[in-house]
Amino acid sequence: MDSSLRSLGLAVAVTASLASPLASQSLLDRTPNLSGGWVGERGTLQFNFLHRFSVSDAPTRKVSNTPTFLLSYRLPLPLVIGFNYATSSDVVSAPPLPNEWEAFARYARFGGALQFGYNQAAKSADAELTLGRTVGPVRLLAVGRFLSKGYGLDTTRYAIGGGATLRLHRWVALAGDFATLIDRRPGEKAAWGAALQLAIPYSPHTFSLQVTNTTTGTLQGASRGVDKVRGGFEFTIPFTLSRYFGRRKAAEGGAGAAGGATSVEMRGMAFAPTRIEVSAGATVEFTNRDQLEHTITANDGSWDSGPIAAGATWRRTFDQPGTYAFHCTPHPFMTGVVVVK
Ligand SMILES: [Cu+2]
Are 164 and 139 in contact, with CB atoms under 8 Å apart? Predict the structure, then answer.
């Protein structure tokens, strides 16, 4: 097959760090100021880097930077725990507390999510309910937020918001959102954001180019607009820990008998071996040794594994003699054939 395309894909896969992609944490499914209710994939450590900056008026044109770092871990339940850390935060201004920590837990259900957390700068227990609905290429989001001690003041605040993503292509989406505190006070503006969301092909990473009037990525930061329009970007990096701990046994060997099944690996963006010969009634076990999702899809469309995550295994029993050519849907240059005798 096209060897230059294949080596490019392999190079990207190898350099693209330690992870599997997951639609639910992807920037293609959320907007700059709404989480979209993502929890990530089981056993995945998530590191997201959100960077915002503003430029002051002439003549100084001072650039002010506000990074928000997110580190989280997805537990076996549809539950993610983690924290955000932002510097140059403006969430608490009197006295100013530039370092903002937010610890949170988020539970996803029915396309939405419930989040509880604690904002250390504001000394506030914060919560968010996300409702999500996908209609064709559009994902619609609505949120309600509760801040027990909003912006470090001794008052409970509530915010509501909504947004949408429009998937233009497997790797490209547009996103926009709007959120506002209920009973805004002088100086508090409604928050808005707009973004071009990109998946980096053949990698588990997504990237966002955004314009917004919010500063930090915490619930408090994302609920209030400020004076200036800010530019920014976000980069998402999932690390699949299950790849390094456990599930090691099946790693040995290429094609061979493993508990009565013939083993095939997906490794380095290729099937190994590419030709599998079995007797009728045999089971073939495919294990994904790469750091991104693959599929095993019959060329004639008669069967399809669906996405197989990094480290995961999929089996199919071939009862009828015949020749079954297959490929990987995201990487059509990955091909193989099962010959059943
Ligand atoms: Cu693939």
Answer: yes
Residues facing residue 171 across a β-bridge: none
Q: Three-state DSSP class for 24?
A: helix
CA distances from 313 to 40, 265, 287, 306, 309 (A): 19, 9, 4, 12, 8
Distance 32 CA to ligand 1 centre (A): 29
Distance 312 CA to ligand 1 centre (A): 13
**3-state secondary structure at position 60:** coil
Please, which residues have CB within 8 angstroms of residue 338's CB and are 6 or more apart in sequence?
276, 277, 278, 284, 318, 323, 324, 326
Residues by chain with Cβ below 5 Å of ion ligand 1: 294, 328, 330-331, 334
Residue reference for tokens 């871990």: 73
**How far apart are the CA of 79 and the centre of ligand 1, in A?**
27
| Whether the predicted pLDDT of 261 surpasses 70 | yes
Q: How far apart are CA 119 and CA 214, in angstroms?
A: 17
- Provide the whole-model pTM: 0.70
Q: What is the pLDDT of residue 154?
A: 85
